[in-house]
Design goal:
The chain is about 35% helix and about 25% strand. By secondary structure, the chain is α+β, with helices and mostly antiparallel strands. It has an eight-stranded antiparallel β-sheet, sandwiched between helices. Strands 2-3-11 form a three-stranded antiparallel β-sheet. The longest helix has 21 residues.
Amino acid sequence: MHKLSILLIGLLFANYSFAQTETLSQEEQYYQFLVDSIENSFHYEYGEVSIIENVATITVPSGFKYLNAEQSYYVMTDLWENPPSETLGLLFPIDNSPLSDYFTYAVEISYSEDGYIKDEDAADLDYNDLLEEMQDDASDANAERIDLGYESIELVGWASDPFYDATNKKLHWAKELKFGESESHTLNYNIRILGRKGYLNLNAIGMMNILPLVNEDINKIIGCVEFDEGNTYFDFNPDMDDIASYGIGGLIAGKILAKVGFFAVLLKFWKLIAIAAVGLFSAFRKKIFGSKEEPID
């Protein structure tokens, strides 16, 4: 996909001069032109789509649309200003898009090839203890986040308790998060689908008030992405395949027993669509027009 950047769109309006006394309607028209140009550049897919060749497939559920990896990287990094990281795509409710005025939530899909995750610890986990540990880890990482130009994160608590489906090897839970001094809290609904060499990672991100909507859709979302034959959890070959250095508890908590920087771990396990925390409409406007003494209503 040709990435229609804000700068390029701005050049299309080069003959359009805005004086200091510009009216709100002119600014709004310009803003809408930018939004429409970006939105019209996206190509959504439906039905069955291979998201990793011969490894995993998404069957886009009814009521949803899928944006491929390249376009989703642009959305997450350039439009939503997340730290750069690999993605397999974004799943949107059919009436939503990256710059919707009434954005509800999106599901970001990625893959981690960390090895086969043993699940023997799942039955013995104390999720309250695990939550306290995760809260401490988030707090400890905030100094580094702030140094790197990102807001602090507070893990308020579980929005939905962890649940592990041992039969289908699928795990899901939800966190309630607070970014910086924001009064509005963010929902981070996590789904992990275990496979032969790692796991598929689905994160549904939005504000806390959309939790009932996500709960209505969650079964569709959990069931829409699967490993292809030969790469499922049950295809594990102990003579050939690596085993991950963590179990189900580590997968939930974001712990990996590897010598990497803590912020790298945070990016891996706490990847968040930043726009959900700061407000999609206002953040994109600020990018276009810069900060103003008088806010735009």
